[in-house]
Amino acid sequence: MNDFQFHLPVQVRFGVGRIQELQSILGEQFKNILIVTDKGVAEKSRALEAILPQLQDYNVTLFNQVEQNPSYKTLEKGREVAKRDDVQLIVGLGGGSPMDAAKGIAVLATNEEEMPVYMGGEPLAADPLPILCIPTTSGSGSEVTPTATYTDLEKIEKQIFTHAQIFPAVSIIDPELTQTMPKKVIVDSALDTVAHAVEAYLSKDAQPLTDMMALKALDLVMASLSKAMKHDTAAATDMSYAALLGGMAVTHTHTLAMHMMGFPLTLGHRLPHGRANGLLLGAFLDFMRENSTVKTRVKELDKRLEPVEGIRGWLSALNLAPHLAEHGVTEEVLNDYAAGVAGHENVARTPAKIKKEEILAIYKAAM
């Protein structure tokens, strides 16, 4: 067994009904609270109904302007609100986008530069505001990661920010909050969990604890997704647990080339992040099966995916067309996408020789 290191400074409160513990967690140490979310969660989820009655003794501001793939412009709007209302705690409520936005706003509320400056490595002058995450989807794992992804609207690209001080202080993971989500959201979120599990297991940085988490997350999704789509509480609990495990795993292993390959598909074709990963996964595994230095690990994943006839068979069973071309992607854009992905550090964590040419080949195989 190789030496390894594991660190996760997030207090996790997991289970059905645990959202009712919010007020006891907050106590009297905070008075001014900013809830960061999106309009879909604010309008359709039961989460606010569960949260707001517990916050009657606090000054609460609702910032519901987060879009899918939050932009730097949105973070600046959130900063203005947080400073105006002298906010002491940021609550990220929703899927990965609101939770990621909450992390960025927590940084900007106490620091003066714009987010791209800190993305470039500039040290934070002050600690971010504390962050409490409440996921309403089961996929991103942002509730337990020190990572957030933002969109540069000028460059039209997604960029990753990782910093130890944006770990949430507390995450309340209540599977009941995920049960109002539409089936498409449940599926897309599950695909993100599967991508995290696969990439964590194959990563050069994989270690015994992350292996255990990654394989368990994959098994849970395979066993529970169909029931979760029918809003079964036990299955929804399994999916929330799988997302948690996937997030914990990639916190330590990071994602690989495949995740970076999904970014331009999301921005250029409005594919949800998880779906973009899912559509690439079959071609990525084919490549890794033949070209990686971890072929035994790929075989282990194949064994677990065999009952659903592999990733492509599973996608078809979920009524999701398994090829990029069926989602509006054309070959003309793939060369530019491959060139943009090739230099990313996550590509270097992929246990295979993989440069622009190989990335382009994977894209084409996914078409």
Give a description of the structure.
50% of the residues lie in helices and 11% in strands. The protein has 16 helices and eight strands. It has a six-stranded parallel β-sheet with strand order 1-8-5-4-2-3, covered by helices on one side. The chain has a two-stranded antiparallel ribbon with strand order 6-7. A hairpin with a 4-residue loop joins strand 6 and strand 7. The longest helix is centred in the middle third of the chain and has 21 residues, at 208-228. The chain is globular, with a radius of gyration of 20 Å. The two termini are 39 Å apart.
Number of helices: 16
Question: What is the C-alpha radius of gyration, as a whole number of Å?
Answer: 20 Å
What letter string, H or E per element, gives the SSE order?
A: EHEHHEHEHHEEEEHHHHHHHHHH
- The CATH topology name of the largest domain reads Dehydroquinate synthase-like, alpha domain
Largest sheet: 6 strands, parallel
Q: Give the low-confidence spans.
A: none
Query: In total, how many domains does the architecture comprise?
Result: 2
CATH class category label of the largest domain: Mainly Alpha
Task: Please identify the structural class as seen in this structure.
Answer: alpha/beta
Kindly report the spatial arrangement of strands forming the biggest sheet.
Answer: 1-8-5-4-2-3
- The tally of strands reads 8
